[in-house]
Structures are given as C-alpha cells and as structure tokens.
Design brief:
It is a single chain. This protein has two domains: 156 residues, NAD(P)-binding Rossmann-like Domain (Rossmann fold); 113 residues, N-(1-d-carboxylethyl)-l-norvaline Dehydrogenase, domain 2 (Orthogonal Bundle). The chain is elongated, with a radius of gyration of 23 Å. The protein is built from twelve helices and nine strands. It has a six-stranded parallel beta sheet. It has a three-stranded mixed beta sheet with strand order 7-8-9, sandwiched between helices.
Length: 281
C-alpha cells in the first residue's frame, strides 16, 4: 500500500501512473477536492492526513516547500505504520533534506529525498528524471519502484542533501535560461523579428547543444585560444543593450552579464575566451 500527500499537478500525475500500474494508493491534499478528484481513477481519498498514511509502506510527498513538508509529516505521523518509508519529491533546501533524513531516522522511519526534473505529463507517463542521494541500502531497496516512476533515476551517492543541491543547481540554470530567453524575445520583438522567425532560428541553430562543452571549459582553467574573445562578446553585448535602450525595451538578465564581463575585462582578461566569466575567483 502506498500513500501520496500533495495532489498538485505533479502529484496527480504520479498517483494516476501508480494506479495504472495496478497499485493501491491512498491520497490526501489540504484542499480535499483535489484528492477526491482522483477517486474516479481508483485512488482512495482522505480528509485526515493521518488516516491517509495508515497501513502505507511507502509515503510519497510532492508539496510546496520545507515548511509544508515538515507540517504535513508532523500531522501525518500518528498514522505512520512502523518502519514506513517517506519519499519526498518536493524541491527543498539542502539543509532541510539533511535535517529530515536524520530526524525521521531517529524516530524509526526512513526518509528519502527524491526531487525531480519532471512536469505533470512526465509524472503521468513515467518519463523525465528523478534524483536521489543518501543511504545506499535504502536507495537500492527503493530503486525498482522509483525507477518505474521516471524515465531515469540518477543516484548522486551517499551524501544526504546532495540530490537537493543538484536540483537547486538545475533549477537555477532553468530560471536563468528562461530569463535570458525573455530578454531575447523582448529584444527580437523590438527590432521587428517575429516569434516564428525566432523559432526558425533556434530550430536551425540550437544553442543548447553547446551547454556541455561550455560548462567543461568554464570549469577548467584554460581560456587561451579563444573561440570568442571576451572583449568582442562585450562589444556585441553593448550593441544590443544600446539598441534595446533606443527602442525603450528593458532587459533584465543581460545587464548583469555585461557587468560581469566588465569586471573580467578590468582584470585584464579581455582577450581571453568569453567563458572566463564563469570562472570561480
């Protein structure tokens, strides 16, 4: 028997997928109607969170943040089956994941943080990526069922909180990427480029293909033999900042990148590869 706490878009997809695989799932959500909605697929909904976890061997969570996870687990604890395993898919702080791992171990339960790079469609179709780290014996025990929930289960080793750190790093990149794309859309609209033309550009020239090679260069220490000198990248950055200003368009991400470029140029690195802006000082 499984329990799932938190029936948002992600949780609903996970529960439906579990039921499609023939599993019995008890569900709870603070807005009870969302849990009740899943009864038409075969879930059993409870208004009491402690009732929702009774007899469950594994309790899954997909909630908002550290505070909501801690509150839900505290309220559910009276219904925990002895030795129950808690699997938390919530994106949380690193410290929160570490503290919960130790706290629930002391109480006689096992807590496994398993954040995901998955949307609702991924959860329903069991595709995407799930991250784990910590007690390897527990991970081996959970691996068959967690692997069935996702396209790829990635194990980052024995350090509790490592999966949380990786998830936050990945989300940081996605937020930055989205911000840069928002700047590109605003700029392209201001200079008469349609959304179709921008889509065609990225269909032919996919800058995402360069992420891994760029990361490797930024993580290294060789910025000689530049493919694009920093001073030239900064020149181009000045051109689109100038054009955006002329058109009255506010860019949000690029000005910060320009300031970072200026810092490295002032340090004498203008002729180095532009990826030097990612070097740790």
């Amino acid at each position: 028997m499984k329990s799932f706490l938190g029936i948002g878009l992600l949780g609903a997809g996970f529960v439906r997928a579990m039921i499609n695989k023939g599993e019995e799932v008890q569900v709870w959500n603070r807005t009870a109607s969302k849990a009740k909605e899943l009864e038409k697929y075969g879930a059993k909904a409870f208004e009491s969170i402690s009732d929702a976890v009774k007899n469950a061997d594994v309790i899954h969570l997909a909630l908002k943040d550290d505070a909501t996870v801690d509150k839900a687990l505290a309220e559910a604890e009276p219904g925990f089956k002895p030795g129950a395993i808690i699997v938390d898919h919530t994106t949380t702080s690193i410290e929160g994941a570490q503290q919960r791992t130790e706290k629930w171990k002391r109480k006689g339960f096992q807590y496994q943080h398993a954040p995901v790079f998955m949307g609702p469609k991924n959860a329903l179709e069991s595709t995407g990526y799930m991250l784990v780290s910590g007690d390897q014996n527990l991970i081996r025990k959970l691996e068959p069922q967690l692997s069935a929930m996702t396209g790829k289960l990635i194990n980052f080793g024995e350090e509790a909180g490592k999966a949380a750190a990786i998830k936050l790093t990945g989300n940081l990149f996605l937020v930055g990427f989205n911000g840069a794309l928002a700047d590109a859309i605003a700029f392209s609209n201001s200079v008469g480029i349609s959304s179709d033309e921008l889509s065609n550009l990225f269909a032919e020239w996919n800058p995402g293909n360069s992420v891994l090679s760029r990361l490797k260069r930024m993580a290294g220490d060789d910025f000689n033999n530049p493919s694009w000198r920093l001073e030239m990248a900064r020149k181009d950055t000045g051109l689109f900042l100038q054009e955006a200003d002329r058109k009255g368009i506010k860019l949000n991400v690029i000005p910060g990148v320009a300031s970072l470029m200026d810092k490295w140029i002032e340090k004498g690195n203008g002729k180095d590869d532009w990826t030097i802006i990612g070097k740790l000082e």
